[in-house]
Design a protein that fits this description.
This protein is an all-beta fold. The chain is built from one helix and eleven strands.
Length: about 200
């Protein structure tokens, strides 16, 4: 059981950033060596990248037990999670007299999760008081950009070229913000001040 009181100022910030770039380039070896064989010369370029990041910020946390939390001051909490992922796949085929086959695949995925809470009383029977002079601001931002680029370059004189390109990009993110949160139990919350909780998820 805890008694927690804030009459001054509390600032909590959590920032997490993850980025990854993958580049794959493929050209048939026989074409580069200029060997004239009437055989299929395959080329395959595959680029795959994935990023995951999370940020969690809290002002006052009670945890387990019957807690009593007083706030008469200013509290600002912010969590920001940013994920950047880029996959680039480039393939090339040159058919002078033979057959050249090629394919490129670029797969990119990014995930970002942000969570922010001003007061979290936790489990059990708790009491939370935000007095007239108390202000709680909680903000969470999740920003995700996933990019997949797939390109194929072909050249044919008297031969034959066939190619396929595929690019896939998946973005997933969520942002959660609470001014005052409680867990299980018989809780009491009194608010006479200001509470502001905002979220932004850009995916």
């Amino acid at each position: 059981d805890d008694f927690l009181e804030n009459s001054g100022g509390v600032t909590a910030t959590a920032t997490s950033t993850a980025s990854q770039t993958t580049v794959s380039v493929s050209f048939p070896l026989l074409d580069l060596l200029q060997i004239d064989l009437y055989l299929p010369t395959p080329a395959l370029a595959v680029a795959s990248a994935a990023t995951f990041t999370s940020a969690d910020a809290g002002g006052i946390e009670g945890g387990e037990g019957e807690d009593e939390i007083w706030n008469s001051g200013a509290m600002g909490v912010e969590a920001t999670a940013t994920a950047r992922t880029t996959s680039v796949s480039v393939g090339g085929e040159v058919a002078d007299k033979g057959v050249s086959l090629g394919g490129t695949l670029a797969d990119s995925s990014g995930q970002a999760y942000a969570s922010s809470h001003g007061i979290d009383a936790g489990a059990d029977d708790d009491q939370v008081w935000n007095f007239a002079t108390g202000s709680i601001t909680s903000h969470a931002t999740a920003d995700v950009i996933a990019t997949g680029v797939s390109a194929e370059v072909t050249a044919a004189a008297t031969g034959f070229t066939a190619n396929a390109t595929f690019a896939n990009a998946v973005s997933d993110g969520s942002a959660e913000a609470w001014g005052i949160a409680t867990g299980g139990g018989n809780d009491r919350i009194e608010n006479a001040g200001t509470v502001e909780a905002t979220t932004l998820a850009d995916v």
